[in-house]
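From the pipeline queue, job 12 of 40. The input is one protein chain; the requested action is below.

Action: predict structure.
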Amino acid sequence: MGKYKLVVHTDPKSPVSEAYRTLRTNIQFLSLDNPIKTIIVTSAGPGEGKTTTVINLAIAMAQSGSKVLLIDGDLRKPALHRIFSIPNEPGLTYVLVSGLSYKEGISSTYIEGLEILPVGIIPPNPSELLASDKMKQLLKEVGKDYDFVLMDSSPAAVVTDACILSTMVDGTILVCASGQAPIDGAKRAKELLENVNANIIGVVLNKIPTNRKGYSQYYYYQYYEEPAPKQSKKRSRANG
């Protein structure tokens, strides 16, 4: 699992696990009238916690009884196969290039209800591959077979991959690390996503340090913002 903690699985009673469950619940409530089944998770820059967020959100959804597919859409720096200790091949790129069923690249996990489609061989043309008609068809197909499809993506302010994928899915979540993500960088990522009419369903703000009695390390705080009419926003806060 490396440096990534699957806290929702390993420590389900922790505050951070409850934060991911709150995020899951918010998404489910957003889906009442217009189902949001396919979601990408991105960030402004690297190292802000997008991968940690997407895997724990996927686990939280699977724990609620949903059938979940987690796709590694970061074709430049894939990590899911290492975190879950599964083979990286065949994977997403193999499925897209070969034209075979996506089921050929799926790996099961020790989390009931959660399956993973790793990247596979890193291609020389990530953006072009993600923008292909085969990618669009793949997302439509898996959207029918799973309750939720979550995808890890490259940072939105660094490369175009997240913006490309955001046009193919129901919703996009932007992860920002407190004290790490430059304000201009976060605004730029949001602007780039909005330029392609991405449906930004929420923002996760994490890595907020706080001092608590009896604890000497940082905790993660997460904020989920739900877009509301008339430019007003409701904000729910969960400690993690």
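Job complete. Residues 212-240 have pLDDT under 50 and may be disordered.
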